Amino acid sequence: MRFLRRKDAESTDAVDDAGEAALTEEDDARSKAHTPGKGRPTPKRREAEQRKRGPVAPPPRTTREAIKRARGSKEDRKELAAKRKEIRQTQRERMMEGDERYLMPRDRGPVKAYVRDLVDSRRNLLGLFMPLAVLIFVALLVPDARIQSFTTLLCLLMLVAMIFEGVLSGNRITRRVRQKFPKEPIRGLSIGWYAFIRASQIRKLRVPKPRVSPGEKID
Fold first, then answer.
1. Where are the alpha helices (DSSP H) in the chain?
2. CA 124, CA 199: separation in Å to the nearest integer?
């Protein structure tokens, strides 16, 4: 009987020791998983953003102050204007150089570039169209009727010659373009008109600027 009691006591002590070990391990796991509190509530998202941005400026007291604040400071406006001017200048330079990204839609493509080269490689009467318009305007201001009549007749003859030359040049350029680009849908009227407008401009004012010199052979 004593032997059985001793055995029961030993088994009971073993169970108690196992239970205490399990409880100890569970407490350690809880202590590791538990994060201590901050001691203060978590700030809201709006409050956190306001802290990052800094203190909020007081509201404007007058309408003039509100308009001025909306426009920004004078230095900021000058800097913005300078950046815009630089961007426009860069775009202008790239367009004059013939960069496809900065050209107008009517000037883009290898067909239009070839037409411009054909027009710029020749001297023609159409290049005097703008100076002729200025001459007509000046002649109308002269009180002498004979000078007005002579100038009007001369300008009329020049205009007829320009139109005749423009038609011949348009037909010639259209044939050359169709030979150069046989797979492209070429419309004769569109190509002829584009060449006429290009040729009627003063050479230094053409956009984009000419890539070839007068008299240069174009293949």
1. 2-33, 45-53, 63-71, 74-97, 110-120, 129-141, 145-180, 188-199
2. 7
* pTM: predicted TM-score of the whole model, two decimal places: 0.63
Neighbours of 147 (CB within 10 A): 11
Q: What is the DSSP letter of 61?
A: S
Reduced to 3 states, what is the DSSP secondary structure of residue 79?
helix
How many other C-beta atoms lie within 10 A of the C-beta of residue 127?
18
Nearest-angstrom CA–CA distance, 204 and 209:
7
- Reported as a single tens digit per residue, the pLDDT across 42-64 is 555 655 555 555 555 677 677 77
Q: What are phi and psi of 161, to 5 degrees?
A: -65, -40
Kindly list the distances between the CA atom of residue 137 and the CA atoms of 40, 129, 167, in Å, as whole numbers in the listed order: 85, 13, 26
Q: Write out pLDDT tens, residues 158-177.
A: 889 999 999 999 999 999 99
Contact 170, 193 (CB under 8 A): yes
- Tokens at 105, concatenated: 């839609």
Total residue length of the chain: 219
| Percentage, residues of the chain above pLDDT 70 | 68
> Is 165:126 a contact under the CB 8 Å cutoff?
yes
The two tokens of residue 103 are 């050209």
